[in-house]
## 1
Amino acid sequence: AASDPDLVARAQAAKEALGSRVFVLGHHYQRDEVIQFADVTGDSFKLARDAAARPDAEFIVFCGVHFMAESADILTKPEQQVVLPDLAAGCSMADMARLTQVEAAWDAMAAAGVQQQVVPVTYMNSSADIKAFCGRNGGVVCTSSNAQTALEWAYEQQGPDTKVLFLPDQHLGRNTAVLQLGLSLDDCVVWDPHRPNGGLTEQQLRDARMILWKGHCSVHGRFSEDVVDDLRAADPDINILVHPECKHEVVLKADLIGSTEFIIQTIEAAPAGSSWAIGTELNLVKRLADSHPDKKIAFLDRNVCYCSTMNRIDLPHLVWALESLVDGVVVNRIEVDPETEKWALVALERMLSLPG
Ligand code: 13P
Ligand code: SF4
């Protein structure tokens, strides 16, 4: 839908008034009406790096979700202020791992006599205190674009007996471990924070190589093998391109798997006339379809599925945040406390220094 012209004019005017004092970051799942005002767009990894690229900007307006804004605050200078235009833009997957739950799991690993061997790895989609837990305990952060490298690094940390605790997305953890590191499904166990001892015996913890936290993305969890089969039956030449947050069964049936940035680069490089079904959030798939009319681009689901929290950032909220800054008021500032920031930065910097 076309954006409200009055709001577009107000957003433009506010950005012009702020000039180089403001830097607007936009994740690829953001609405078109918001993405048009982003100074840079990217996947989680690129945005984490880009956040630090404008140390002169007083304000970083983050059009994305809460954990991304927290990471931007951690990676920028203390005097730079990070703004999330709607505080309700959380991530249900990130909420599935709470620090107290993770600490209970950690204690259970000590009781089973394996904690020394466990390296915690958290997906970027987690709260700052989970990242800090990883920093404090010899672990690392990863994103969907570097999960393989991060896991390879982790498995080198404690010799051949290393185990990884992967938080909070079981699918990214399993897909990367099995498809890219060559572990078997039997090497992986799932820790359910809502069951005593994670629903695992001490022997299962001792035998496992990969302990997957029982978290998932409800948006990517909707893609199914059936739809892949139907699309292939209807068009044998179709290419199935999915995000690694999809279930393992779906990823096994896909042709290509990768982060949002990878998905965009793949479609940009695809030949005219090629046909694609994409399993990721709908704002991005629609934008790709609109900007590549010479390619057949479909959504890998029969229903509409946006990420409702990414969609919380709309043009009215962006205009309100920018106009408030023009008026000298910083609304919705995201500020991580110094102790959490210190250790989360350790885990984030380990990720940023990985090769590749
Ligand atoms: P990317 O890192 O691929 O941009 O993914 C972020 C995300 O939230 C996917 O659900
Ligand atoms: Fe979180 Fe899923 Fe939305 Fe990404 S798409 S922000 S993982 S709920």
## 2
Amino acid sequence: MRNKLVQKLVEHQGTFISGESLSQSLGVSRTAVWKQMDALKKSGYQIDSVPKKGYQLIARPNGIQEHDIHLYVQTKRLGHTVTYYDSVPTTQTLAHEWAEGGAKEGHLIVADEQTGGRGRLGRNWHSTFGTSISMSLILRPKLSPQQTPQLTLVAAVAVTRAIEKVTQLKADIKWPNDILIKGKKLVGILTEMQSEPGLAKVVILGIGINANQSEDELSHDERNQATSLKVESGLETNRAQLIATVLEEFEWLYDTYLEKGFSEIKLLWEARSISIGKKLKAQTINGTVTGMSTGITAEGALLLEDDEGIVHTIYSADIDQ
Ligand code: BTN
């Protein structure tokens, strides 16, 4: 009920909502509403309660609205405009729409909850209200469509660096761009593109971070063993600060990549990757390849050497490791 109540308050931010209408829409008594409001105030929510008018949300702890993120943003251009939604099916589709409407490179779409989050290889991505980070960044790089997968590796380096800066937790990268702690998934990255022949017109870089979810909130995830920053550190992460730090880290790595190519990023990626020098099983659309991973190519594809010494170049796959 707490989540739904917060959601209602967020939806009505800037206006009052009566105790009566809250109790009706949530199907609980007015006393229950009052008790929850009291609990929220004790946990740092600023809520105005005025007799006959009801309740108004003034400020939320750990918010990720534009003004929260802008407290921390120190980038040259990324994240200077932010569009926040409390609950959306997926920030990816919205970012595509904003890009089609002419949004500039660096425009960021964030949401407190996704109800139909998209993952790689057609999977779902689950984001819980108020505790996760779901963000999609609009990029307009001058790259060929074949080069854009490298951006997911740039992003993986940026996110692991940002996590380490903000939480001191050390995370590993699993090829191409899963971020794990002790083998459990913490971050997912999804790059989507709108292209013209020979040119990636728009790239939408989607990043989902399990930030403050409790173990219970993560247990839905059957396929991937998931974890969160809170589960790993026992501490609440300031989501706005982490988003701003991801933007900051991504900006300089992205600029380095655009200016100098992939070679410097490759070294940084390899230093944080757990996918090198191991026997891996790659499930590709053309079948399964098992072999020793000897590194990544200059394009970011994974090299797997099988038992016969044949080296396979893997561009897209699900990796078991
Ligand atoms: C994966 O590991 O499969 C990728 C997950 C990507 C999730 C992010 S959350 C923000 C953006 N919106 C989505 O629907 N997906 C990406």
